[in-house]
Amino acid sequence: MSVDPSVETGAGTPPSIEFDHYTPEYRDNWREISDTNLSKCPVAHSSTYGGFWLVSDYASVSRVIRDDATFTSTHNMEDPEDPRQGIVIPPNPMLQVPMEFDPPLYNVYRRMLNPYFSPTAARALEPFVRQAVDAFLDKVCATGRMDFVLDLGNPVPALATMKLAGLPLDDWQTFAEPMHGIVSNPAGGPEYLRCMNALQQLGGALGALVPRLRDEEADGLLSGLAKATVNGERLSDGEIVLIALLVMQGGVDTTTALLSNTLWWLQDHPEQRQRLIDDPSLMEHATEEFLRIFTPVPALARTATEDVVLGGQRMRAGDRVLMSFAAANRDPEVFDDPAEAKLDRFPNPHTSFGLGIHRCIGSNYARSWFQIMLRGVLDRMPDYTIDRSAARRNDSIGIINGFVNMPATFTPSEPRGVELPA
Ligand code: HEM
Q: Positive or negative, the Cα torsion across 108, 243, 249, 251?
């Protein structure tokens, strides 16, 4: 890497790096790589994936994500020559509605979706989520062994997302399986594309449900979307499907990743595990700190719409820009002792849900689901031990930094007799 010291005006040679967020090297060393980039080249140009700027420091990530006029989320699916290729590098083969829209159209969609994701809506779902957690833990508690990902972290958020979408609960696995494949493999690779294809087919099945929902009264987001209007027009079947698939992609795997990383960390920090067991009031701040130190969605992209100087580097209109939330969350300018997890850290302005207008709409659900799942484990299997040699990280963490599976053992206990919610 070479750094030109005369870059204040963006006139110098930009620092250039070979950064690939899908490699095993990044998966295994993302903290060290983020820290090096932060200290040596907070805004650097990478030649991978056709070239993009990697933005690591908090101030620059914050600037990019809040200035949606200069850094667009738009994805022009019709024209692959158009540099505006959305929020994933390399581009996602499916449009993410409305995540890959800009204002003013974006605002209309977000206003329409907001009521389904409010704090009140998240609270209303909590009894369902508690019952699901109890029922899934009932299935394994007497055996003294479980898999934190396969038996809890995957099914609970998937079931809760089906519930909020208003889809048949029995189908949760059909939807969740391709999502897991998409987030745990390198974007654009064969497994990722196979799962994308499966998801598109599921989209076809969802689309077939929409005409009936247009007139019928039913609970859930899908039914609401079938009756909603945008600028006086009803949403098309295709748009409804794309919104539903985005919500499911957001709902599945993200909270799972937060839970699995947290359980892994608590194994190394038994005194912190005991603190959380003894003092439930710690949970709120601890959740934010786990979000910060694990950053389940490590990075997302934008495209520059005009020439702009950022962090001393001159970007050109059409340049792709990858915001490293993982690095920004470790910026010592904002966080004291950023490498250390302090469960009572406050304030904690982490970037894990984004910061600008697209800030995670599911954050109320995410916090609630995570806390109910973690509380369930700490109550019912407080002495758990993860079998680290058998646990497997995602092959790639470019999209989600999580685990594929995580077997554990614990002192067996009696089931509570709770059935899965219907
Ligand atoms: C720990 C869990 C989660 C994390 C870390 C997370 C992270 C994020 C991030 C970083 C963004 C993009 C922000 C941006 O581009 O500015 C986002 C957007 C989004 N998330 Fe989440 N998310 C989580 C949970 C959820 C859940 C549970 C749902 C749904 C139930 C969800 C649905 C969405 C949707 C629909 C968007 C697009 C919002 C928009 O463009 O308006 N997310 N999330």
A: positive
